[in-house]
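Lab meeting, item 3. Inverse folding demo.
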């Protein structure tokens, strides 16, 4: 329970940090990651709520979380397509700096949850979320380097599409 509470608070905090940074930088990949932080905070909260409940309730909670992650993927892919149409190029320094902070948070949470990766579907889902988030943070930082080097939005859009696909498949 303690680990899930820490993960919930850190993810909720990072949702607000990255959401603000995504708006100021224009980065879709940061927006995708901020929505993912929100989804993860909700995921941890739901896992806490059903932790001691019957297996059937935990199974329904896991299905709900899967549907939510799928919806997250659709929203991110839609926003990436929208930015592709509008041609917005994000600000890479903000992307890279916030991506680094987010990586530190997600790596720390993933390390705390590592021992639960083989638990029931709810505990596996919190591990998967944290693992995917750390991968996504590395990708956001690589996108920032790509945007900085090319002056193009393409690296940001590609990473947003990958993060959206992770949401769909997780």
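The presenter then showed the designed sequence:
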């Amino acid at each position: 329970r303690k680990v899930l509470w820490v993960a919930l608070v850190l993810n909720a905090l990072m949702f607000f940090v990255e959401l603000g940074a995504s708006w100021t930088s224009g980065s879709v990949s940061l927006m995708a990651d901020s929505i993912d932080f929100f989804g993860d905070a909700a995921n941890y909260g739901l896992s806490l709520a059903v932790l001691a409940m019957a297996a059937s309730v935990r199974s329904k909670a896991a299905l709900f979380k899967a549907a939510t992650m799928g919806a997250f993927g659709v929203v991110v892919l839609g926003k990436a397509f929208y930015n592709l149409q509008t041609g917005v190029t994000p600000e890479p320094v903000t992307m890279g700096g916030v991506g680094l902070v987010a990586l530190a948070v997600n790596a720390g949470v993933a390390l705390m949850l590592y021992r639960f990766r083989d638990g029931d579907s709810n505990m596996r889902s919190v591990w998967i979320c944290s693992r995917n988030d750390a991968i996504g943070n590395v990708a956001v930082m690589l996108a920032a380097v790509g945007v900085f080097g090319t002056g193009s939005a393409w690296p940001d859009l590609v990473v947003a599409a990958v993060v959206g696909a992770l949401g769909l498949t997780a």
